[in-house]
Specification:
There is one protein chain. The chain has one domain: ABC transporter involved in vitamin B12 uptake, BtuC, CATH 1.10.3470. By secondary structure, the protein is an all-alpha fold.
């Protein structure tokens, strides 16, 4: 109880736990479909987009969040439009990946050679996350955005599941497959931008993929798996934050991803033949 009181009494911990839970829920829900639709490479590409967008905003002297959210959403929608039926294929993702990495190198050079970016702290925070450094305003914004993503995912979950399992039949039944694909990738872009502040651009793919992968190993029931993915993601974030708080030398992003990855490995261990309930 004393430990819980200490957590509640620390504003930065309250912000981290509340915003972290919302971001984790959005990551779990979107991540389930990222894995189901075999779009993990898309999530990896968006992690680099998040870094590049944030650096572009910093280099231009703008708010980091503008570049972070703007770049992720715009590039995600562009990949959906360039792909077939709202799903970016590997060629599109690979091309965007290379282009974004090049832009990232350019903006990194511009930012680090400018007077405001001489110490490079903001760039490091974007790469590895700064969830313990969230202000009250940032926590509210990230939580509101993440909750919005969760609500939209709940609304489109059933038709998106149909389109993910059998696009041809879904299209024949007049399900707007292409529109759903574009909306979904837009949501992944928003989630990637929010998750970047929790675990960093380099590690956000783990928060999208590991809980969802564990959930899909543990159950074959899609809607149960969807919620299980969100629960695992929230548990991973909270456990990781507690680990980082108890051992200050451990970065929160490492603790979060360590728990998420361990959960996935446990799920594999207990379902060696792919057996699910």
């Amino acid at each position: 109880m004393s430990g819980l009181a200490a957590i509640v009494g620390q504003p930065f911990l309250r912000y981290a736990f509340l915003a972290g839970a919302a971001i984790a829920a959005a990551s779990g829900l979107t991540g389930y479909f990222v894995v189901l639709r075999s779009q993990v490479f898309t999530g990896d590409a968006l992690s680099h987009v998040a870094f590049t967008g944030a650096l572009a905003a910093l280099a231009a002297g703008a708010d980091l969040l503008i570049g972070l959210y703007g770049a992720c959403v715009i590039v995600a929608l562009a990949m959906a439009m360039l792909g077939r039926r709202g799903m970016a294929d590997d060629t599109v993702i690979g091309s965007v990946f290379a282009w974004i990495l090049g832009l990232g190198a350019l903006f990194l050079s511009i930012y680090t050679t400018s007077p405001t970016g001489a110490n490079g702290t903001s760039g490091v925070n974007v790469l590895f996350g700064t969830i313990f450094g969230l202000s009250a305003a940032q926590a509210v914004i990230d939580s509101a955005v993440a909750v919005g993503v969760c609500l939209v995912m709940i609304v489109i979950a059933r038709p998106l599941l149909f389109a993910s399992i059998d696009q041809a039949v879904a299209s024949a039944r007049r399900v707007p497959v292409r529109v759903l694909g574009a909306v979904f990738l837009g949501l992944v872009g928003v989630t990637a931008a929010a998750a970047t502040q929790a675990v960093g651009a380099l590690l956000l793919l783990g928060l999208l993929a590991a809980p969802a992968g564990a959930a899909q190993r543990l159950t074959a029931r899609p809607f149960l798996g969807l919620w299980l993915s969100a629960v695992i993601a929230i548990g991973s974030v909270w456990a990781g934050l507690l680990i980082a708080y108890a051992a200050p030398r451990i970065p929160p992003s490492f603790g979060i991803l360590a728990v998420a990855t361990t959960t996935y490995l446990i799920a594999i261990t207990f379902t060696p033949n792919g057996g699910r309930v």
